[in-house]
Amino acid sequence: MHTKNDIKYMKRCLHLAKNGLGNTCPNPLVGSVIVYNGKIIGEGYHKKAGEPHAEVNAVNSVKNKTLLKKSTLYVNLEPCAHQGRTPACSKMIVDLQIPKVVIGCRDSFEKVDGKGIEIMKNASIDVTVGVLEKEARELNKRFFTFYEKKRPYVILKWAQTLDGFIDFERKPETPIKPNWITDEYARIFVHKMRSEEQSILVGTLTAEKDNPGLNVRDWTENNPLRIVFDKNLRLPEKLKLFDGKIPTIVLTEKEKKSKKNITFLKLDFKKDIFRQLFSFLYSSEIQSIIIEGGTQTINAFIKSNYWDEAKVFTGDKFFHKGVKAPKINIEPEKKESVSGSKLLTFRNFNAF
Predict the structure, then answer these.
(1) How far apart are CA 63 and CA 218, in angstroms?
(2) CA distance 79 to 90
(3) Banded pLDDT at 160 (limits 50, 70, 90)
(4) Rg of the Cα trace of the chain?
(5) pLDDT value at position 146?
(6) 196: Cβ–Cβ under 8 A, 6 or more apart, which residues?
């Protein structure tokens, strides 16, 4: 049974770790606090891949380092055991003679996977594992999916009207532009979502009709890798996706030479193209992908059970006719409001 203090300080670790969302990949989200005599004397989180880990930042924030030998270090993920871009945190903890370490969950990455815990236990450090384990694994769902299932975490996202349409009825003369169902504040929320993931995909029709930029222009963080299906290379080069400003992958069955920031990835469309895509993303260390449309593409992911999470916005509009929105036949995990829209979050715990 874990103590109230263990739970309190682990919650703080998880809160700190979230500050790194969108910046730490391929590394996990990690926060750490150091407690002496019932008081936090140091804390930190992993800010960016290649920079010091959470445990190092927490130690560095402690003013009186002599207190470390009498303190407890809390961290939401098992301290690393290998020398990567930065030194092994488990060995640092041993060297500093920190007597007690409390961990949220074990790290299933093969270079760690219990080795950090073993290093500390062999040094007679009191190690507790499993405090808020479910929450700790949830925080790093992308990381764990990537290393345990050898694929990216897949998020479906769309907006629909109150009468269940994802797009209005378009005619040949209809201008090529996005069809906004939600308001500008919901769009800012979506751009924040995009900044937290590593890649984003749309189908050919969505690229053709909406001409999306798939960037985070209404937010301030990283743009995801853009991916578009274009089997026969029929999309016009004037589309925003081909402006060369953001790395973009075109999935096609044709041979075409890549150019600045645009890579043409040849797939075998007679076989499972999604599996081929996931294999490419895994080899590229891309841990997450948002599927933003359209209906045909999203339905294909749903039918194949190739999704982990879905974010469905419902705006305050009626189209009466048009393109029907995709459907997920399970109860939502979460319901919330974003500006004037409703947002339902679905989770697929039986994903591929």
Answers:
(1) 39
(2) 5
(3) very high
(4) 23
(5) 97
(6) 21, 22, 221
- Residue 102 bridge partners (DSSP): 74, 128
Q: List Cβ neighbours of 37 (8 Å cut-off, separation of 6 or more).
A: 70
Task: Tell me phi and psi for residue 59, to 5 degrees.
Answer: -60, -45
* CA–CA dist 178, 213 (Å, integer): 10
- Please report which residue ranges of the chain form alpha helices under DSSP H: 4-17, 54-60, 89-95, 115-122, 133-139, 141-149, 184-195, 204-210, 273-283, 295-303
User: Amino acid letter at 216?
Assistant: V
Nearest to 347 by CA among 309, 316, 319: 309
| Alpha carbons 87 and 92: distance in angstroms, whole number | 8
Give the integer Cα–Cα distance in Å for 142 and 28. Answer: 8
Looking at residue 124, its pLDDT comes to 97
- The question of whether 133 is a catalytic residue gets the answer no
Question: Taking 80 as the threshold, does the pLDDT of residue 82 lie above it?
Answer: no
**Using 50, 70 and 90 to split pLDDT, how confident is the model at 116?**
very high
Cross-strand pairs, 103 = 75, 129
Return the pLDDT at 171.
76
Catalytic residue among 43, 55, 196, 292: 55
Burial of residue 67, with CB atoms counted within 10 A of its CB: 0-12 exposed, 13-18 middle, 19 or more buried: middle
In angstroms, the CA 100 to CA 337 distance is 42
Q: Are 288 and 29 in contact (CB under 8 A)?
A: no
**pLDDT of amino acid 178:** 73
- pLDDT tens, position by position, 200-254: 999 999 999 999 999 998 887 789 999 999 999 999 999 999 999 999 999 999 9
Looking at residue 174, its amino acid is T
Q: What is the mean pLDDT of residues 91-113?
A: 95
